[in-house]
Amino acid sequence: MIELNFVYVALTAIIPIITGFIWYNKAIFGGAWMRAAGVSDETLKNGNMPLIMLLSLVLSVLIAMSLMSVTIHQLSMFSVFGNDPTLKDPQSANSLYIADFMEKYGNNFRTFRHGLLHGSLCGLFLVMPILAITAVFERKGFKYIAINSGYWIITLGLMGGFICAFA
Asked: Model-level pTM?
């Protein structure tokens, strides 16, 4: 069986906050993002930052948990056998099969590099199109899409790498 370390899942949820502080800093992309998003310093100051940060952290935990199924391929095996009542018996054929499989292949592709790849691909092929569709309807430009998509591609890559290697 895979034993997941939920402390690392929680730590992974901090990655979007850290990368956001760097990415959206005015010296990096913050100023360009503000212009592309049509927001001002006053608009940003009016927000309830403790609430925004708390919600961001909670939502980032959900993202980290979702990335487990994308980056840890062994979890797919458990979804196939999930409702099998014989798994409660450690001597059943399926329990023995899973134990043997995990002994042989349980650590395959459990590296930061592998998780980085899959997390980045999620950003590129899932998040970027979603952001782009939304931005098109909001009448936002390419720069807005590029800044936000770039943030999520890098952030999900780092989160995927951390989850895959340590959780």
From this structure: 0.91
